[in-house]
Automatic annotation (TrEMBL):
Protein name (database record): GIY-YIG domain-containing protein
Domain GIY-YIG: start-end pairs: 5-80
Family listed: Belongs to the UPF0213 family.
Coiled coil location: none
Signal sequence bounds: none
UniProt xrefs under Gene3D superfamilies: GIY-YIG endonuclease
Pfam name, any one: GIY-YIG
Lineage, broadest ranks: Bacteria, Bacillati, Bacillota, Bacilli, Bacillales
Amino acid sequence: METLNSHFFYVLRCADNSYYGGYTIDLMRRLNQHNEGKASKYTRTRLPVSLLHSERFETKREAMQAEYSFKQLSRAKKNQYLLEREALHDFDTAKL
């Protein structure tokens, strides 16, 4: 269950190894919708998809800005963005 005022930017890895960036307030529900072919035309033809990355924001605007910015990146820059976020995530997890 997500908390109120949780807005997420997320990145999926599709079966063809492409990325799909999106916005939601409920990550698991949205992931299920994608895998059922009910979320977007792009992912519908690239199933199955898996959740690669997500970021939580306090406002819809912030999450949608993150989505837009990600979608403007080249594939190489998207890879760099994701590698940097995963490295930060691994570091934070190790300190817990």
